[in-house]
Amino acid sequence: EQLPEVYEEWLTRMNRSGLAERIRGSFVKLKFHDFQTTTHEAASPKFPKIDDFAKLLELAFHRRSEPVRLIGVG
Q1: How many angstroms separate the CA atoms of 12 and 18, rounded?
Q2: Apex 69 CA angle, 41 and 29, nearest 5
Q3: Could you give the C-alpha distances from 41 to 11, 35, 45, in angstroms and in order?
Q4: In the chain, which ranges are continuous DSSP H helix?
Q5: 17 CB contacts (<8 Å, ≥6 apart)?
Q6: Band (19; pLDDT cuts 50, 70, 90)
Q7: pLDDT for residue 22 is more than 90
């Protein structure tokens, strides 16, 4: 449920940076309750949308399926 807010913050940063048109991939990083992390990434021929991040988030979460304390996107 946190993904839309995190995505909007990321989108704002990318648009401000002027680099949005050069992005051709995405990643999701999860930090779990015990501070262990996992990252899932994918290349893409187009600018990533929230659905792209949602798929990565699902794949990353299923690696451990434990409580998450932090979500990062890039």
Answers
A1: 10
A2: 10
A3: 17, 20, 14
A4: 3-17, 50-61
A5: none
A6: confident
A7: no
Taking the CA atoms of residue 50, residue 41, residue 11 and residue 32 in that order, the dihedral angle to the nearest 10 degrees is 90
Q: What percent of the chain has pLDDT over 70?
A: 100
Q: How far apart are the first and last CA of the chain?
A: 17
Place of tokens 């929230």: 50
Read off the pTM. Answer: 0.86
Q: Helix or strand or coil: residue 29?
A: strand
41-54 burial by CB neighbour count: b if 16+ within 10 A, else e? eeeeeeebebebbe
